UniProtKB/TrEMBL annotation, chain A:
Gene: Chp1
Species of the source: Psophia crepitans
Residues in EF-hand domain copies: 5-40, 89-124, 130-165
PANTHER family with a match to the protein in the record: EG:114D9.1 PROTEIN-RELATED (PTHR46002)
Keyword hit for Cell membrane: yes
Region Disordered, annotated ranges: 71-90
Protein name according to UniProt: CHP1 protein
Automatic annotation (TrEMBL), chain B:
TM segment ranges: 12-29, 35-56, 68-85, 97-120, 132-153, 165-185, 206-227, 247-268, 289-307, 319-347, 359-380, 386-409
Topology within the bilayer: Multi-pass membrane protein
Name of the gene this protein is made from: Slc9a2_1
Annotated protein name in UniProt: Sodium/hydrogen exchanger
Record carries keyword Membrane: yes
Domain Cation/H+ exchanger transmembrane, residue spans: 17-409
NCBIfam families registered for this protein in UniProt: b_cpa1 (TIGR00840)
GO molecular function: potassium:proton antiporter activity; sodium:proton antiporter activity
Taxonomy of the source species: Eukaryota, Metazoa, Chordata, Craniata, Vertebrata
Organism: Psophia crepitans
Keywords, alphabetical: Antiport, Cell membrane, Glycoprotein, Ion transport, Membrane, Phosphoprotein, Sodium, Sodium transport, Transmembrane, Transmembrane helix, Transport
PANTHER family on file: SODIUM/HYDROGEN EXCHANGER, SODIUM_HYDROGEN EXCHANGER
Pfam family, one: Na_H_Exchanger
Compartment(s) where it occurs, according to its Swiss-Prot or TrEMBL record: Basolateral cell membrane
Keyword Transmembrane annotated: yes
Amino acid sequence: SVSHSQITRLYSRFTSLDKGENGTLSREDFQRIPELAINPLGDRIINAFFPEGEDQVNFRGFMRTLAHFRPIEDNEKGKDQNGPEPLNSRSNKLHFAFRLYDLDKDDKISRDELLQVLRMMVGVNISDEQLGSIADRTIQEADQDGDSAISFAEFVKVLEKVDVEQKMSIRFLH
Amino acid sequence: LDYQHVQVPFEITLWIMLASLAKIGFHLYNKLPSVVPESCLLIFVGLIMGGIIYGLNDKSPPVMDSDIFFLYLLPPIVLDAGYFMPSRPFFENIGTILLYAVVGTIWNVFGIGFSLYGICQVKAFHLQDVSLLHNLLFGSLIAAVDPVAVLAVFEEIHVNEKLHILVFGESLLNDAVTVVLYKLFRSFCEMPAIKSMDVFAGVGKFFVVGLGGVLVGLTFGMTAAFTTRFTKDIRVIEPLFVFLYSYLSYLTAEMFHLSGIVAIIACAMGMKRYVEANISLKSHTTVKYFMKMWSSVSDTLIFIFLGVSTIGENHEWNWPYICFTVIFCLIWRALGVLVLTFFVNRFHVNSITSKDQFIIAYGGLRGAICFSLVFLLPDFRRKKLFIAATTVVILFTVFVQGMTIRPLVDLLAVKRKRESAPTVGEQIHIRFLDHLLAGIEDISGHWGQYYWKDKLEYFNSKYLQKILLREYDQPKSSIVLLYEKLERKHAIELAEAGQLGHAPSHPSLLNNDRTVITDKKLEDTLNPDVLENIQEILARNLYRIRRTGPAYNRHTLPGETEPVEHAKEILILRHKSL
């Protein structure tokens, strides 16, 4: 679990973001971070912090979301097979990313959802048709059950060669 | 024919004209700048010019006057660097930068000085009369990494933002150390006896020089910001204030024997934020363009003069000493970087890789500052030896290190090849994860720095902004602020010309019958041609993560580099969706 010094750091970061000083963060507080404004996925990342239908997130929620990005310690790997899976396991990290794609929460990334994300990530020089064929290609590579959408299991399979544990870990949180 | 009347301005203008024409000449041949860095070519031109002058007059060509260099040629370059310095990465890495600049330079000075003294003891080289103090003095001027040379060469190689700022920041800040040590050893040379009190005084002086420079710079910077608050009705001379105050801060610091470079940087960084808010958009553009122009001209002139001054009879060629100087410079720099990085990596989690260390060590170029300092040395018997050694070191670093750093970096960057090329899906998802992580890192902030940054922000919003800014608005969300800033010029242009989302596609990139692809059966889309096209499209068009590119570029204005163009596109897309 998270150490005391990390909690203190995150709390001071939380309070520095909380301009209204009411113990919770709103979406505007996140949008004030300049680097986030030019991140293509900025809005979706911000939304990931807020529980369903709410507009404020408290420190506990803030930490819980960030806990997905803790590096996986070596001594945790084989440890507790029976207990609840820690938030920063490979599977949960991937699930976090999957939820950013899957806006309607039907556990599938449909072609439209993929197109939306692609459009956010590429420049303006790509036409809709080109983007469509890229999306088609992506789905076709991953799709194993023939439903023209990417399920979570298929998503995991695409990324099996990628070192997700390292890619989705914030380096200072250990 | 009244040549005497116009001689001085005429000759100055001719030199500047020569420099500019040379620059045009290089860029006409497209292949050349990629193989040979511009600085090498300019020195080469200088060598030719020096040779011509020597041949015509049969005496040594005019040596670059140290005063001209320090008072007229150096300030524009440092101002340009300081004004456009990306402050976020600079302050994020300030600890490491200071460590390299201060401790690293001291390490190099003493290392080189003592080893050269050791060489002087060898009877065969006939160097016994060069005392330890002289060697230390020489060490102090040759050890410093030069910002002009570093800037010139690092543009050719594309390193990430953090590395760039480390080497660059170090080269700027080590001026304080160089100034103190140089003056210290020089005064020691003239004193009959050295007491330990003097050494302590030297150490104390270092802090005075550095911090004093920062104070002077900030004072002038704040005054400049305050002045621009009242310039609403005389927009035409607004840009002038930026330059006047910066130059004054440099000269004032030099007057008090403080570090002028540190002062001008502090001035530029301090005033930038407020001045840019106060002055008009046109003045802003004027400031940017003039700075780039002046620093470009200065830079070119410096290298040409370096070449010219090399020819002549100012040198005493004692090859053992010279060769050992070059060798020791390389060795001590490498050792210094290794040891310091070892310490740095223990405290920071973002470790500096060995490839980075190599670039830092190899990128420690010497340039015109060493050259001018060596000419400022008091005349003593072995001065020409030092001049020769300095010349060779500079030429070596600029030519050999400058030309080979690019191929070496490429060599080191070869990653282990994957067994198979990444699939399209992998590519997209990996980039997705990269953006996600960058965003999360920005949200969670970096350890420790936000304490001081927030204190400064608080101080800023409560006091400074009210005094220094003309119009003080409530803070809006970042995206709205940034969007408003862009809106005036670029957003409108982009919206009109680009028709976002409906840009004409390039027919060559996909097969001609595009529509057929979506109709074809699944097996057909496994066509390798199509796959290759898609890979190519993605490679070229996916937005890069912010930190993988250099944030400061010498020859382009800050608003025109590729990452910034992408940022604008992203902002406009998001604002549309708001």
